Automatic annotation (TrEMBL), chain B:
Family: Belongs to the CcmB/CycW/HelB family.
Keywords, comma-separated and alphabetical: Cell inner membrane, Cell membrane, Cytochrome c-type biogenesis, Membrane, Transmembrane, Transmembrane helix, Transport
Chain segments annotated as transmembrane: 12-40, 46-67, 102-122, 134-155, 161-182, 194-218
Keyword check for ATP-binding: no
Superkingdom, taxonomy of origin: Bacteria
The protein's name in its UniProt record: Heme exporter protein B
Gene (name only): ccmB
Functional description taken from the UniProt entry: Required for the export of heme to the periplasm for the biogenesis of c-type cytochromes.
Length: 256, 221
């Protein structure tokens, strides 16, 4: 019978549900508020630890607290780029429409986190190293990462047709990905002013737990902040594309 | 292979017949270099010390100047669409473009750099290393430039975007280029930097035609 026809249609696989923009929005929208709440909670705990319940460093004093913002944003500056590179593969290999959207949403977020990492690093460098800026391997490569992010944002905005833009930006994103490992290993290759890795090392963290716990909480707080903002930005982008399609249809005069 | 040579020959003939475009580029290169003493003061010792950096920056800027003319005219008069239909693979045509770009924009700069070296007070051995490092490093810049031009060729207002996109990618070339001339750690470091430059150029030359071809095909679809 006709009434059964809806049940007869094959169930969409999770992959298809992910690929379909409307489906994606409808099943990820309920996630936004819980994620935002979790982010706020993590920030509350992390900032309380960072300001009131962690010791001042014996060398750096209270300025060590800048670390709780600086290290997570620096980590995100690279993590967001990795997200974009994976999305770029999704665009080029599977032509996955949500990969385009994810790549576009992530670029300004990555640029913001990178700028924050550079800014807090500079604020931290002045009292501890005696300089706002040094042309050292890690700082220089992070600055270049910021330029690449801004270039990608500019490239997205320069295209009218977002589908063509996605593929061209994806190619550029993958070419620019060469820079990320250079940043990661820069402190080991050129040991100048920036301190070498002290959290993720082969021998485990080289930090006392009293500093490490708040750092990890802030780590998760910033990462969940990124995930929340990324989802919201993706929803916005899906809607923007929907509006553009509707406008185009209206202009053509066959509005549905 | 015929298509490759035809494109190369066509690009060279256009550059030479185009009414002094090559000459303009060389003039720009020398003027940028000659502006520096006015900006930092005519201190001979200082100028001699920063001369390698000045020569590299001037060469880098001059090579960026030509990017907008690299593929855009071909797209506007429809040549690029014909290239995509040709028997010769698009990557091979773009390889010819990279080589043509190097021959018409980098080679004249290398030939003109002794003049810049002279007015900046560079000594003989340094000039020799400068010429060698430019010769080894500029192919990478030409390859990156072609990639940047390919990424932005579909854009109507992409003129300034290509330099902004490829400048961050070109930083290693600049670092090793200057490092090969004015080594911080002695002659060993200089020859290591020369090898890195050669490696960067070979890698960029090998990969850029394919990546640029992808960018053109996907940008036009």
């Amino acid at each position: 019978m006709n009434t059964n026809s809806i049940d007869d249609t094959p169930k969409m696989s999770w992959w298809n549900r992910l690929a379909h923009p409307g489906q994606f929005v409808s099943w990820t929208r309920p996630l936004v508020w819980p994620l935002a709440g979790l982010t706020a909670l993590l920030f509350a705990i992390g900032l309380w630890f960072a300001f009131f319940n962690s010791p001042a460093d014996y060398q750096m004093g209270d300025t060590v607290r800048i670390m709780y913002v600086h290290v997570p944003t620096a980590w995100l500056s690279q993590f967001v780029y990795a997200t974009m590179a994976v999305s770029a593969l999704g665009t080029l290999v599977w032509r996955h429409p949500m990969a385009d959207v994810s790549m576009k949403a992530a670029a300004p977020l990555g640029a913001a986190f990178t700028a924050m990492a550079l800014f807090t690093g500079s604020m931290w460098g002045r009292p501890t190293w005696g300089t706002f800026w040094e042309w050292d391997g890690r700082m220089t490569s992070t600055l270049i990462l910021l330029f690449i992010y801004l270039g990608i944002v500019a490239l997205w905005r320069a295209f009218d047709d977002q589908l063509r833009a996605a593929r061209v930006v994806a190619i550029f994103t993958l070419v620019g990905a060469v820079n990320v490992p250079i940043i990661k290993f820069s402190v080991d290759w050129w040991s100048t002013l920036h301190q070498p890795a002290s959290v993720f090392t082969a021998e485990g963290p080289k930090m006392p737990p009293s500093l490490l716990t708040p750092l990890f909480v802030m780590f998760f707080a910033f990462t969940f902040l990124f995930i929340t903002l990324q989802l919201v930005a993706m929803h916005t982008e899906v809607r923007r594309r929907r509006v553009m399609t509707l406008e185009r249809r209206t202009v053509r005069g066959d509005a549905a | 292979m015929n298509g490759f040579w035809n494109v190369l020959r066509r690009d060279l003939r256009l550059a030479l017949a185009g009414g002094g475009e090559v000459l303009t580029l060389v003039l720009f290169f020398i003027i940028v270099g000659a502006m520096v003493p006015f900006a930092v003061g005519p201190d001979k010792a200082l100028l001699a010390r920063i001369a390698p950096g000045i020569v590299w920056i001037a060469a880098f800027l001059a090579m960026l100047l030509g990017l907008d003319r690299l593929l855009r005219p071909d797209r506007e008069d429809g040549t690029l669409a014909l290239y995509r239909l040709a028997d010769t693979p698009l990557a091979a045509i773009l390889a010819a473009k990279v080589i043509g770009h190097w021959l018409t924009s980098a080679l004249p700069l290398i030939l003109a750099s002794p003049f810049l070296a002279l007015i900046l007070g560079m000594d003989g051995p340094t000039l020799g290393r400068t010429l060698l490092s430019l010769a080894l490093g500029t192919p990478a810049l030409a390859a990156f430039g072609t990639f940047g031009a390919a990424v932005t060729v579909a854009l109507r207002r992409g003129g300034l975007l290509a330099p902004i996109l490829i400048a961050p990618l070109s930083v290693p070339v600049l670092i090793f280029g200057v490092g090969a001339i004015a080594p911080l750690g002695g002659p060993d470091q200089a020859s290591a930097a020369m090898l890195f430059l050669a490696a960067l150029s070979l890698m960029a030359l090998a990969l850029s035609p394919f990546v640029a071809a992808l960018a053109i095909v996907w940008g036009e679809e």
